[in-house]
Amino acid sequence: MRIAQISPLYESVPPSLYGGTERVVSTLADTLVELGHDVTLFASGDSRTKARLVACRDKALRLDPARSWDLPAHLAMMEDVRSRIDSFDILHFHTDCFQMLLFEDVAARTVTTMHGRLDMKDLTPFLATHRRFPLVSVSDSQRTPCRFANFVATIPHGMKRDVIRPVESPSDDYVAFLGRISPEKGPDIAIDIARRAGWKIRIAAKVDTLDRGFYTETVEPLIKQGHVEFIGEIGDSQKSEFLGNARAVLFPIQWPEPFGLVMIEAMAAGTPVIAWPNGSVPEVIEDGVTGFHVTSVDDAVAAISRSAELDRARIRRTFERRFSDLAMAKAYVEVYEQLLAKARNRGKTSVRSSGMPAPHVAADVVKTDRANGKNTT
């Protein structure tokens, strides 16, 4: 199958430091190649991939020192994808809504994974007028504000099994917070939990420009009080040690988290997750198995002690079963095949009803399926 993966340009694929969506795109593109598919990745030129890379700008936007503007960068990428449209059977977008005005005529052979929150004022009416686009949610809870939309599947994020590994003999002398410094992620709450429990907390997190005020006014004063080690952003190569040595990962999320990649990164390290059950958390963390659902600081303090009772090897096995790269890629291939089958059926109906040749897209799909056979998973 000829598949285009279209990534946001904010981070490289995979990101050198923080970046959830681009990390998922990297995993999916590489795993699809390993499964035998012909994959082209549209991304920034500093990306690293097993797929064929089309560099849509030289550097990812966030870490580019030059003054940049995301809108024209992404629109230029969409024009590039559009110019190559006949080279692909499936166009898989990870770019929210950028593509929906330019690809309406081929919406049936596109997939759009919605990576972010959907409870946005302007998003609901927009999706209501673009229902031809098949959407994939990353959790069932993510769909809640837009259940009317054309969701064809829920596919949890997956990770390469060898990116983060458990530590053989964890030091088990701190709790961890990983991700982004922002009010909705709750780093201040995590610090409060650790302090009340008498545990040191290590924080590896990105501070966005928009959240600089929150960091300076709220988080930094707490760090200065002690018992907190602020590391800053870390890459994948540092996560096994950072997560694997922790007693638990604190995830005091204060918003409807669409997925929460941090949770499966912790699970890959075999480390329990203590999380508020908001958004996707109940779908990702099995209470009492891979971590604990808590609804107060006091509950979280108690859960730190209880986390020692959980089986780290079982946590790792759960990650491999539910959130591996292979599980994610196979689920997407099934969606691709279902959409292409519908396109073929529409083409056949058109031939019978009008006596005219089937549309080019349907004929192209049939040709590709014959070349690749049915064993595409």
TrEMBL record:
Single GO term (MF): glycosyltransferase activity
SUPFAM superfamilies, alphabetically? Answer: UDP-Glycosyltransferase/glycogen phosphorylase
InterPro entries in the record: Glyco_trans_1, Glyco_trans_4-like_N
**Stretches assigned to the Glycosyl transferase family domain:** 171-311
Q: What region holds the Glycosyltransferase subfamily 4-like N-terminal domain?
A: 18-165
Q: Where is this region: Disordered?
A: 348-377
Q: Where is the composition biased (Basic and acidic residues)?
A: 366-377
User: Could you tell me the superkingdom of the organism this chain comes from?
Assistant: Bacteria
User: Could you tell me the keywords of this UniProt record?
Assistant: Transferase
Keyword Repeat attributed: no
Question: One Pfam family, short name please?
Answer: Glyco_transf_4
**Protein name, per record:** Glycosyltransferase family 4 protein
Gene source species? Oricola thermophila
Q: What is the lineage of its organism?
A: Bacteria, Pseudomonadati, Pseudomonadota, Alphaproteobacteria, Hyphomicrobiales
